UniProtKB/TrEMBL annotation:
SMART domains: KLRAQ. InterPro entries: PPP1R21 (IPR040024), PPP1R21_C (IPR049372), PPP1R21_N (IPR019343), PPP1R21_six_helix (IPR019348). Pfam families: KLRAQ, PPP1R21_C, PPP1R21_helical. It is found in: Early endosome. Residues 40-64, 532-555, 601-631 are annotated as: Disordered. This is Protein phosphatase 1 regulatory subunit 21. Residues 539-555 have a biased composition (Polar residues).
């Protein structure tokens, strides 16, 4: 049923996500339509502006033409006035002077209006070009938006199809789970029946055990508190696993906190050596030297916090009993925390004086002085929070040292106050990080700032950020597990009092003995073998042992015989080679003898027959001698190829050829083995280089994967930023267009006023001209 509920929940979530996607798709479609309508309206406005501009140009041309006519008319009037200047009366002269002044003012005003009209036309054309450029950019942005909308529409359609397939799959799964739920209900009914049977059996056993206890147990140690404290409490495995898990999480947070504190103190030391005086250029003040010396010792106070808590985590196992009275390693952690708090108290005055020294520098502004004062108050607040935490941690470590050191009812209050102190620590470090950031931004404006100081300040701000994050995690973790910390853990059976720390060690030893005894009882005994089976197995084992020995002897004999045959094979191969050599030598000798015989027969044709018979006999004797030598050599040659006859010249040659053949054979064998070894070495080198290349390719692939992941993150951030910029630009363009429309309206009004003034001037000039003609 739980699986069906989960499936229904997932299905409802998917339906909600689908409805959200549809709503977003409709909003995007509406935005595209609005953008297209705006683009069309912009184009229409541009056309209207072009038309109005052309009208204004035409009017300007007509005005210039009329202005030229007026100028010519004025020249003619001036010439007429000049010709009539000799015979006017005094009243005519005054009237002419007034008319000239009025005409001069009108001419100047006309010139000013022409200049303004020209400037307005130039400004209008420039604004028109800017608006055209902006309109083109907006059209490009609209096209890009349409492309994005198309991609999003495709993506949403794919998402809809995937959700529909997920819906079908989940429906099938829900049907399967419903069938399984029916089967589970049937099994539940069966289990309930078995449970009723087990309860009845357990009730019977309880009655029997209680009667046995009343009759057989003479002493009940649970009635006495002193004896009962030595009894092993009921083991709560879930509590122990939870305690170990909580200790492991706390250890990871403590490690992060220790790393952040080390970085903060180290970068503070580097900053002291750089600002307000750079130690590489001139010596720093004695106060900062002492402060730097103390900061250099921070690892001796911070590192033991991690080590002591690691020992505390290692002491919490599944087999132990974890309560405040048995956690002895907590006292070591409390001592190291107290030493670190004393270290903070020791460096606090130097830290405050160092900030005052920064305020005394000539380039320190009033804003920097205010930030330094805020940092001084932050340092004081941080040290006071650590002092409070030290007090509460020492209180929690007391029950493992002394009995009745802290009432059990006060434990929950101590844990609650410690959680509040952790939140105060997070707030103090967060406030200090904010003030440091503001101070760093003010220092960037100083003219004497160096790159070294900027880098150190950035590192210091990074350490403060990690310190803020780690303290926030610790405070949240402690608040989330506050119920577990304040819950009553182990206590002796039949007693509500806490464990005695002096007797906790004996209780743990009793627990180990009991666990060993139970495991010894549960150890299964080895099954015995019947006597008849043992006798038959012994006979089979004896016969198999004898047959195995006989077979091993036969195998050994066969191996010896194979080795001997191999040796004989090598020997007969050498003998065959020697026979081939001898055969070649005999054939050569026979050919030489035949050549000698032919030469002797050719020379004895003129000699007497007796003389001819003598060489024939000598030749037969000569032929018989080598044959007898060969027979003797053949008979006296042993199986191992050793000659036992008296070495003659021919035998010495045979031994040399035999040794040469043996050397040749073994050198060929050595060459083959060398070739095989070289091939194996080359293969090994090839495989080694290939493995190295694959390892390098794997490392490069990992790096490229990380790089691509970072690029994807940056691209996502850039897209978000561009979308924000696009919205801002769109709003600014709309505002500018409205302003331009207002400006164009005002310009039209100005032009209409100018036209009216020009028409008035024309009428006035025409009236003056008529008056002059009448005169």
């Amino acid at each position: 049923m739980a699986n069906v509920t989960d499936l229904q929940t997932k299905y409802s979530k998917l339906a909600q996500e689908y409805s959200k996607l549809r709503a977003q798709n409709q909003v995007l479609k509406k935005g595209v339509v609005d953008e297209q309508a705006n683009s069309a309206s912009f184009k229409e406005q541009l056309k209207q502006r072009d038309q109005s501009l052309r009208k204004q140009e035409q009017e300007m041309d007509s005005l210039s033409f009329r202005n030229q006519q007026l100028a010519k008319r004025v020249e003619l009037l001036q010439e007429e006035l000049a010709s009539k200047a000799d015979s006017p009366s005094q009243h005519g002269l005054e009237t002419q002077c007034v008319f000239d002044e009025d005409l001069q003012k009108k001419i100047e005003e006309n010139e000013r209006l022409h200049i303004q009209f020209y400037e307005a036309g130039e400004q209008h054309s420039r604004q028109e070009s800017e608006l055209k450029t902006r309109l083109q950019e907006l059209e490009k942005d609209s096209e890009q938006h349409q492309a994005v909308v198309g991609r999003l529409t495709t993506k949403y359609m794919e998402t809809i199809e995937r959700l529909q397939s997920d819906k079908a799959r989940l429906e099938i799964k829900s049907q399967t789970l419903e069938r399984e739920a029916k089967e589970c209900r049937m099994r539940t009914e069966e289990c309930q029946q078995q449970l009723r049977l087990s309860q009845s059996e357990l009730n019977r056993q309880v009655k029997q055990s209680s009667s046995v206890i009343q009759e057989k147990v003479p002493f009940n140690d649970t009635k006495l508190i002193g004896y009962n404290s030595l009894n092993v409490p009921p083991h709560n495995r879930r509590h122990q696993l939870k305690a170990r898990d909580v200790a492991g999480q706390a250890l990871s947070f403590i490690q992060d906190l220790v790393a952040a504190l080390l970085n903060f103190h180290s970068y503070t030391e580097q900053r002291v050596h750089i600002y307000p005086l750079d130690s590489s250029i001139e010596p720093i003040s004695p106060l900062n030297q002492k402060f730097s010396q103390y900061l250099h010792e921070n690892a001796a106070y911070v590192r033991p916090l991690e080590d002591s808590f690691l020992h505390l985590h290692q002491s919490i196992t599944e087999d132990t009993v974890t309560v405040l009275e048995t956690v002895v390693k907590l006292k070591s952690f409390a001592d190291h925390f107290s030493s670190y708090t004393h270290f903070l108290q020791k460096i606090l005055p130097y830290q405050l004086k160092s900030l005052e020294e920064e305020c005394d520098t000539p380039l320190c502004t009033a804003a920097l002085t205010a930030k330094n004062q805020e940092l001084q108050s932050d340092m004081k607040r941080l040290t006071s929070v650590f002092e409070k935490m030290q007090s509460y941690i020492n209180l929690l470590a007391l029950p493992s040292v002394r009995q009745d050191a802290m009432p059990q009812s006060s434990t929950s209050a101590v844990f609650t106050q410690l959680a509040a102190c952790l939140h105060s620590l997070h707030d103090a470090i967060k406030e200090m990080s904010k003030h440091y950031n503001q101070k760093a931004s003010l220092e960037q404006e100083l003219p004497t700032i160096t790159q070294k100081l900027c880098t150190t300040t950035e590192c210091l701000l990074g350490s403060l950020g990690s310190l803020t994050s780690s303290t926030g995690k610790i405070a949240t973790f402690f608040s989330n597990n506050l119920d577990f910390f304040t819950s009553s853990g182990y206590s002796p059976r039949g007693s509500t009092l806490a464990l005695n720390p002096l007797q906790a060690e004996s209780m743990l030893a009793n627990k180990k003995k009991a666990a060993a005894y139970i495991s010894a009882l549960k150890k299964a005994r080895p099954q015995s073998v019947p006597y008849s089976d043992a006798l038959s197995n012994r006979r089979v084992l004896t016969s198999s042992t004898e047959s195995r020995e006989g077979l091993s002897q036969q195998v050994q004999q066969s191996q010896d015989k194979i080795a001997r045959l191999e040796q004989e094979k090598e020997h007969w191969l050498l003998e065959a080679q020697l026979g081939k050599v001898r055969l070649e030598k005999e054939n050569q000798r026979i050919a030489d003898l035949e050549a000698q015989l032919a030469a002797a027969q050719g020379g004895s044709l003129n000699s007497p027959p007796a003389a001819a018979s003598t060489p024939v006999q000598s030749q037969e004797e000569a032929e018989m001698e080598p044959s007898s030598g060969e027979r003797e050599a053949t008979l006296c040659t042993s199986l191992v190829g050793m000659l036992c006859t008296t070495p003659s010249v021919e035998h010495v040659g045979d031994e040399e050829s035999r040794e040469t053949l043996i050397k040749t054979h073994y050198m060929a064998r050595v060459g083959e083995l060398t070739t095989q070894l070289q091939i194996s070495d080359s293969k090994a080198v090839h495989f080694h280089s290939e493995c190295r290349a694959l390892a390098k390719r794997l490392a490069i692939a990992e790096k490229s994967r990380e790089t691509l992941t970072e690029e994807i993150k940056l691209a996502t951030q850039k897209i978000t930023r561009l979308q924000d910029e696009l919205a801002t630009t769109k709003r600014s363009y709309e505002d500018q267009l409205s302003m331009m429309s207002d400006h164009l309206c005002s310009m039209n009004e100005t032009l209409s006023k100018q036209r009216e003034e020009i028409d008035t001037l024309k009428l006035g000039s025409k009236g003056n001209a008529k008056k002059n003609k009448g005169r």
